[in-house]
5'-nucleotidase SurE (Mangrovivirga cuniculi), 522 residues
Amino acid sequence: MSNTKDKKPLILVSNDDGITANGIRKLVDLMKQIGEVVVVAPDSPQSGMGHAITIGNTLRLFRERIFPEVEAYKCSGTPADCVKLGKHHVLKDRTIDLVVSGINHGANTSISVLYSGTMSAAIEGAIEGTPAIGFSLCDYDPEADFDHADEWILKITEQTLKRGLPKYTALNVNIPPKRIEKVKGVKVCRQANAKWEEVFDQRRDPTGKPYFWLGGNFVNFDKGEDNDEWAIANNYISVVPCQFDLTAHHAINYMNEEWEL
Amino acid sequence: MSNTKDKKPLILVSNDDGITANGIRKLVDLMKQIGEVVVVAPDSPQSGMGHAITIGNTLRLFRERIFPEVEAYKCSGTPADCVKLGKHHVLKDRTIDLVVSGINHGANTSISVLYSGTMSAAIEGAIEGTPAIGFSLCDYDPEADFDHADEWILKITEQTLKRGLPKYTALNVNIPPKRIEKVKGVKVCRQANAKWEEVFDQRRDPTGKPYFWLGGNFVNFDKGEDNDEWAIANNYISVVPCQFDLTAHHAINYMNEEWEL
């Protein structure tokens, strides 16, 4: 899967914060140093969309000229829709060498990978057999500083193009927030065992009817040092290779032994 | 995790086709034979929502009296939102013994598990440490006949309550469409290696602007006989135990060996 040709690799860029977010602008700037960039990204924020796709409704796709010298499109759909449209419509006669998504404004470590629109774009690339990376900065500030991540994002991208990834995998890359201490390096690791403990904030609208805000506290059950939460807490960049076979293979034997059907 | 008490198990029911779908009415009727049922389901169809949750927007939740003698609520959010609201608001002082979702009008085999709202409700249950099952009928007709599945849905549910599931797993159960030949039985299996090959149907709106319908052809790469596509094609009910650790564990060694970072 490595790119050995002389021509520049073709890189499809998407995200979930929307095409005007600072994070995607930074990612486009970095990818332009490596390859030919085409952007298909949501026309509005799509955080928390998980692996949603647009069924039973139509999609819009329009040219957008906000990135200098880069072919870009804004799409009314989800991040997964964007990659599908990029692959099967915008670039349908060409081979995409890499799908990258982000840089997300906020962490997508541990369980958050399931809810992440950023990672759904990357996993959609992996489903197509294309190497793919989702980048997230563990800082929710829309004005967060991404510069400390530049060299690492370039390195991880170049290694992905040079060394390839096992088929049907996408990388979930999380970058610690900018601190006084420099980032220590990269840890290839597993998804931490953690979850969100939901708290619903119930309020009343002006007519007296109830409504809710979803909120929650993050609870980390994982005592290991080989997971993404540990890496970020210790100022490493976490790289979790992800796949989309949800089968709990260990449970098949259990059920075939214990169940009576 | 088995229910050994005398009291009836508490079963939270959700779906992605919306609270008025035939599939959830059938599931509620079946679950009432086994336990105490509480329903929290979307107020409108949520097919293809994957593991989306509602961030940056509010949620509504209202009592709905369409199921005789059953406490039920319709929610403006996604299937994952419904289970979160069911667990942390509606039933927050009680222990849920089982989360069931469906019966979906349409298959959620192989790769479709990623896009499935039905399964996101079940997986949300698994994240909470509660045994969970998503049921889908491989028939997209809203008026499809579910009766041939009754005995199997009851059996699988009873076994789940009696034998339990390994922690953090949810069952993805797909039921063949009604045929002249009776269902042959149940196969515990893995998710097939298959994907959707997208085809976008481009049209023009009355003002001349383009829009798209997402469509696609299902492509099955899997030659095995231990997967859900094989089971359905051979008139078995497929049961795939699913988990939510997306780590491609096999890729970690590869990257630690081959990559230079």
About this structure: The helical segments of chain A are 22-32, 79-90, 112-115, 117-127, 150-163, 228-233, 249-258.
